[in-house]
Amino acid sequence: MPTQTQRPESLVDDPGIWFGIATGLVIVTFLIAGLSGFGAVGTGAAVLLVGGLAAVRLPGLIALALGIVVWAFYTGFTENSLGQLTFAAGDLVRLAGFAVATVAIAQLVRSLHDTGTVREVRHG
Which residue from 63, 73, 74, 97 puts its CA 20 to 30 A from 42's CA? Predict the structure, then answer.
């Protein structure tokens, strides 16, 4: 990740830009899951996987924020309807789970990449 004095190699390397891209990927995943009839469990698994993979390029706190975004969309549109967020006990447990799982998936993929198990694919 670039420091304050360094410019990113490309706009995609900027954490803010990548956070927007990652959020877009999560929303597209929700749309596909909804249209495909994945159900609540399948949708949750799909968006957690996409969110975690997209968070690989994000710093820890921003990856955590992406996990909260994933939870908000899941709670608002899969558990409830019309984007209504609730904060019942189950919702708060899910909030913690989605946030931690997003960061954990990102960390796992990063560590696999660092050990050479997974290679980065870059186009351009």
Answer: 63
Rg, Å, the chain Cα set: 15
Question: Could you give phi then psi for residue 59, rounded to 5 degrees?
Answer: -65, 160
**pLDDT (tens digit, 9 = 90+) per residue, 78-118?**
999 888 999 988 899 999 999 999 999 999 999 988 887 76
Cβ contacts of 45 within 8 Å, gap of 6 or more: none
Exposed/middle/buried for residue 119 (C-beta within 10 Å: 0-12, 13-18, 19+):
exposed
Q: Whole-prediction pTM value?
A: 0.83
